[in-house]
Automatic annotation (TrEMBL):
Its cofactor is Zn(2+); Mg(2+). Residues 23-56 are annotated as: Disordered. Belongs to the Nudix hydrolase family. NudC subfamily. It comes from the Eukaryota. GO terms for cellular component: cytosol; peroxisome. It holds the Pfam family NUDIX-like. This is NAD(+) diphosphatase. It comes from Papaver atlanticum. It catalyses: a 5'-end NAD(+)-phospho-ribonucleoside in mRNA + H2O = a 5'-end phospho-adenosine-phospho-ribonucleoside in mRNA + beta-nicotinamide D-ribonucleotide + 2 H(+). Residues 247-377 form the Nudix hydrolase domain. Residues 23-35 have a biased composition (Low complexity). Its EC number is 3.6.1.22. Keywords: Hydrolase, Magnesium, Metal-binding, NAD. GO terms for biological process: NAD+ catabolic process; NADP+ catabolic process.
């Protein structure tokens, strides 16, 4: 079955070709996973060993102590370490964000808050029975300083069950907002390493929190599951079972099918796509098949094209899919066609066609990805200032002027963009070290 995408707003320019600086930058580095959205999480670069002060269980033990101290109004000297804990609230899958702007640009930031702020907001909700405890937090990672007082650990918290409306009210006073992760994805400046890293952190956090929601019960015996290892694992509470449950990852193959002889690429449309958008084929991997087999099967099932050689390009975490699939892993390939006649499966796809290299290059040219990024960043800024509450960021594309572009492809936030631009610029990797 194909993978459905629902991309946020991209602005389409007039028919006059103009390759944006941002598009060129992402093309030139398309083989690097660091250029992919949600990759390059700095908090996951190295997990501390169990005995380290910033390891999941050590940090959780310290957090329990701090919660107990504040509950008992204890002014123990260890309380000074509460500043070393940073929390990222989520509500309905949306991370807390802030924004700042100047005359030339607008940038967004994740809305990290302190432990005392967490407890203060929950107490204001009036739900005393839901005062935050250690099971409310999910460990995200750590950063080490020059000494122990400069070590920081980072946590995510889902505020929906601890006074969600109060969180919105209290945090909006400080010009914070809960923003859709897809909106932040489009709003990210791909040349800004800080924003790219924060996007990766937010994606990791959302995936873990959504996984916790769908794994409340043991699939083996039906018993209730409880968090262990600071929320990075779960375990069945049934003493006769105690089955461990690990975070779910849903692997997906996404492939650019290439007609080498005629210098064409196969692109497809799904009914959920906005008008004129074309992308790569994609589909979930089935049990018992290799990645290469999945590429060949999905291509055959959806288009009737037989694929021979399959070459790996790169992979991308994709935590913005359905909530029931909290962390897809997109595994990108180039696939070389052995047959050329297309037979579209209309249940799976709306259409699939061969496109010349020139047509695909023009599709890259028409989409003003950099302007889309600036527009989305401005929208986040307006939301944080309370200007445009309830704005739908998945609305249809705007057209500035002139004739509509006949087709365009997803923006640089999607691995499909990097597969296609790599082929256009002949930077894809082939077994012979050359790209066709």
């Amino acid at each position: 079955m194909p993978l459905s995408f629902s991309f946020s707003r991209i602005i389409i320019s007039s028919i006059t070709p103009k390759i944006q600086t941002l598009t060129t930058r992402t093309m030139s580095s398309s083989s690097s996973t660091q250029s992919h959205a949600f990759a390059g999480n700095p908090l996951r670069s190295k997990t501390p060993k169990p005995g380290d002060p910033t390891s999941p269980n050590s940090s959780l033990l310290k957090l329990k102590t701090l919660i107990l101290e504040t509950n008992n109004n204890n002014n123990n000297k260890d309380s000074v370490f509460s500043k070393n804990f940073k929390f990222l609230p989520f509500r309905k899958g949306r991370p807390l964000a802030s924004s700042s702007s100047n005359s030339s640009s607008t940038v967004w930031n994740l809305g990290w808050i302190s432990l005392s702020d967490c407890k203060s907001i929950v107490e204001k909700s009036g739900n005393e029975e839901k005062i935050i405890n250690e099971d409310s937090f999910v460990y995200l990672g750590s950063k080490l300083g020059k000494d122990v007082e400069e070590d920081f650990t980072y946590w995510a918290i889902d505020v929906e069950n601890v006074g969600g409306d109060v969180w919105v009210s209290e945090l909006s006073k400080k010009q914070f907002c809960f923003a859709e992760l897809r909106t932040l994805m489009v709003a990210t400046d791909w040349g800004d390493s800080r924003e790219m890293e924060e996007l990766a952190i937010a994606g990791h956090a959302r995936a873990l929190l959504e996984w916790h929601k769908i794994s409340r019960f043991c699939g083996n015996c039906g018993g209730k599951t409880i968090p262990i290892d600071a929320g990075r694992r779960k375990q069945c509470s049934n003493e006769e079972c105690k089955k461990r449950v690990y975070p779910r990852v849903d692997p997906v193959v996404i492939m650019l099918v290439i007609d080498k002889e005629n210098d064409r690429a196969l692109l497809s449309r799904q009914s959920r796509f906005v008008p004129r958008m074309w992308s790569c084929l994609a589909g979930f991997i089935e049990p018992g098949e290799s990645l290469e087999e999945a590429v060949r099967r999905e291509t055959w099932e959806e288009t009737g094209i037989e694929v021979g050689e399959v070459i790996y390009h790169s992979s991308q975490p994709w935590p913005v899919g359905p909530n029931s699939m909290p962390c897809q892993l997109m595994v990108g390939f180039f696939a070389y066609a052995k047959s050329l006649e297309i037979s579209v499966d209309k249940v799976e796809l709306e259409d699939a066609r061969w496109h010349s290299r020139e047509d695909v290059k023009n599709a890259l040219t028409f989409a003003e990805y950099e302007k889309a990024q600036r527009t989305a960043a401005d929208k986040v800024d307006q939301m944080c200032k309370g200007v445009e509450k309830g704005l739908n960021f998945s609305s249809d594309f705007n057209v500035e002027s002139g004739e509509l572009a006949p087709m365009f492809i997803p923006g640089p936030f999607a691995i499909a963009h990097h597969l296609i631009s790599a082929w256009i610029n002949q930077t894809c990797i082939k077994s012979s070290s050359q790209c066709s």
